Amino acid sequence: xxxxxxxxxxxxxxxxxxxLIDPRDNKIFYVGKGLGNRVFSHINDALINPSFTEKLExxxxxxxxxxxxxxxxxxxxxxxxxxxxxxxxxxxFLTFRDFAEVAKISNIVAGHHSFNQGIKTVNECEILYNCxxxxxxxxxxxVLVININKSYDNKRKKKSDNPDYDRPNIxxxxxxxxxxxxxxxxxxDYVLAEYRxxxxxxxxxxxxVQDIEHRGTKRWGFEGxxxxxxxxxxxxxxxxxxxxxxxxxxxxxxxxI
Length: 257
Description:
This protein is of the alpha+beta class. It has two domains: 7-129, no CATH class; 136-254, no CATH class. The protein contains nine helices and twelve strands. It is elongated and about 70 Å long. This is Excinuclease ABC.
């Protein structure tokens, strides 16, 4: 488990809200907000600060049991005033006596920005923002990379003409419809969804189909499933795509070496 964020990760996180969890019972014992490495600062405080607060005593007891506090980033990429609001809401919710016995929450659905600004462990934040580059020599399959910046960030308008973000899930944002070489697509073992330069998901295409609404431009999409094989994920997931000079096309092909 990491104990400090890299400089790059700190800059990308901006202001954030975090929680500390006691590994002995998996209960939240502290909610805070901060910048940089603030989330980790309480551990050092418990060691060098002689004060006897409930928070510090919990951390000391965890250390005595040779365990480690669990750190989670609840929301990041915030301005300071936004972080204050999120922190306040969380504290109110978690300390309100009538919510103490809540057994089920019905709306367990990933929210907007779930794979870049949703709940994450501190390790996942570091992977997200300090990821390594996928080198061409490491590519072990024929892969088609699709940049989904526009399809995932697609800004649509409601009937009232008020702008609103309508985010599809990442599979729908990746599967179609694209101007591409159908033969090369069919020869690809996997489709890699690339968002803001990083591979966020991997799909196994089973069939390529043409968009009937755009037959003249030959736009294609695929039907398939998300890859969960850890061997494949370890090769490609959360890696920066190889840099191609002057690349503007959202479609890129890479052959196995």
